[in-house]
Design brief:
Layout: E1 10-15, H1 21-35, E2 42-44, H2 53-65, E3 70-75, H3 81-93, E4 98-102, H4 119-130, E5 135-140, H5 151-164, E6 168-173, H6 177-189, E7 196-200, H7 206-216, H8 222-230, H9 235-255, E8 260-264, H10 270-278
Parallel strand pairs: 1-2, 1-8, 2-3, 3-4, 4-5, 5-6, 6-7, 7-8
Bound molecules: flavin-adenine dinucleotide.
Flavin-adenine dinucleotide binds next to β3, β4, α4, α5 and β6.
Length: about 280
C-alpha cells in the first residue's frame, strides 16, 4: 500500500443517466444534496453501444453547469474510432477534462465488437487523439474481472491500460478489503504507480445487489450475504446494517492508505451522504 499513501485522497461520486422525466427531476435533487459534500468530481455512466449517449452528455452538462467537475464514462465496445473521436471533441468543446475509459460489455443483440477491442486500446486512442487533455480513469478489479483467464493475466491487462496513459483507476466494488490491499501490492510489485481508488457500493437492496454482483464478479462474502438475507422485507434494518458495513469498509481502506473513495451512488443521496459525514470526508 506504500505507493498509494503519497496521493491526496479524493472523494468522488457516480451517477447513471436517468431514463424518464421523473428520474431526471429526482437526480437533480440528488445532485443538489450531494454537491454540498464538495465531491472531487461526479462521473456519469455510459451505456455500452452508445445506448445512453445523449443521456450521459445531458447529465454531464448539468453537473458541469452546476459548477462541479464532471467526468463522463466512455465505452468502446461496438463503437467506431470516428464516433469516439466525435464524442471526445464534444467533451473538449464543453470544457470536460476528465474521462472514465472502459471497454464496456456487449449489449445483447449487438454482434460487432467495434474497432477498439479493449480499454487499453481506447486509452491509447484517446492519448493519440487528444494528448494530455484528459485525466483518464480506468477500471480495476481487485476480485479479478469475470472474463480474465487468471489473476496474473488480469493484472497484465491492467498494466497495459496504465502503460497506454491512464492517469488513475477506480475499482469495481468489493466487500473484502484484503482483495484491494493484495491487488494494490501486486501493482506495486510490477512498478505501477497511479492512484487506485476503491469503489464503494452502499448496500440498499439485497436482491439487486446479489444479481448485479453475480454479473460483474463482485463477491458478497457469506457472512454478509447471510445477514442481508435475514432482513427480508425489512428495508430500513437492511439499510442501517449495510451502512454500518460500508462505513467500516471505507474506514479500513482509508486508514491503510487508500487514495480516496468513489461512491456508486445509484442516483440516491442518503447512503453516500451518511458514510461521507460519518467519516468526515473532505476534498
Ligand atoms: P478491459 O480493461 O478491456 O478488460 C476486459 C477484459 O478483457 C478483462 O477480463 C481483461 O483481463 C481482458 N483483457 C484486456 N486486455 C486484453 C488483451 N489485450 N488480451 C486479452 N484479454 C484482455 N460499463 C458500461 O457499460 N458503462 C459504464 O459506464 C461503466 N462504468 C464502469 C465504471 C467502473 C469504475 C467499473 C469498474 C466498471 C464499469 N463498467 C461500465 C463495466 C465495464 O465496462 C465492464 O466491467 C467490462 O466488462 C470491462 O471493462 P474494462 O474497461 O475493465 O475492460
Amino acid at each position: 500500500m506504500e505507493s498509494q499513501k503519497k496521493y491526496k485522497p479524493a472523494f468522488s461520486i457516480e451517477f447513471f443517466p436517468p431514463k424518464t422525466e421523473e428520474g431526471k427531476i429526482k437526480l437533480r435533487r440528488t445532485r443538489e444534496e450531494l454537491a454540498r459534500l464538495n465531491p472531487a468530481y461526479i462521473s456519469v455512466t455510459y451505456g455500452a453501444g452508445g445506448s445512453t449517449q445523449q443521456g450521459t452528455l445531458d447529465t454531464i452538462l448539468e453537473i458541469k453547469n452546476a459548477g462541479i467537475d464532471a467526468a463522463p464514462h466512455l465505452t468502446c465496445v461496438g463503437s467506431t474510432k470516428e464516433n469516439i473521436k466525435a464524442l471526445l471533441q464534444t467533451y473538449i468543446n464543453n470544457g470536460i477534462s476528465r474521462i472514465v475509459a472502459l471497454r464496456g460489455d456487449m449489449p445483447s443483440g449487438m454482434h460487432e465488437m467495434g474497432e477498439l477491442r479493449y480499454a487499453s486500446e481506447l486509452v491509447e486512442f484517446i492519448r493519440a487523439e487528444t494528448g494530455d487533455h484528459f485525466h483518464i480513469e480506468v477500471a480495476a478489479y481487485p476480485e479479478i474481472h469475470p472474463q480474465a483467464k487468471s489473476a496474473t493475466a488480469d493484472l497484465e491487462h491492467f498494466k497495459r491500460k496504465v502503460d497506454a496513459g491512464a492517469s488513475s483507476a477506480i475499482t469495481q466494488y468489493f466487500y473484502n478489503a484484503d482483495a484491494y490491499f493484495c491487488f494494490v501490492d501486486d501493482c506495486e510489485k510490477i512498478g505501477l504507480d497511479i492512484p487506485i481508488v476503491p469503489g464503494i457500493m452502499p448496500i440498499t437492496n439485497y436482491k439487486n445487489l446479489a444479481r448485479f454482483s453475480e454479473m460483474c464478479g463482485a463477491e458478497i462474502p457469506r457472512w454478509l450475504r447471510k445477514h442481508l438475507e435475514d432482513f427480508g422485507d425489512d428495508v430500513a434494518s437492511l439499510r442501517a446494517f449495510g451502512q454500518q458495513v460500508s462505513t467500516q469498509l471505507a474506514k479500513t481502506l482509508l486508514e491503510q492508505g487508500a487514495p480516496g473513495l468513489h461512491f456508486y451512488s445509484m442516483n440516491q443521496a442518503d447512503s453516500t451522504q451518511a458514510i461521507w459525514h460519518e467519516l468526515q470526508l473532505s476534498n
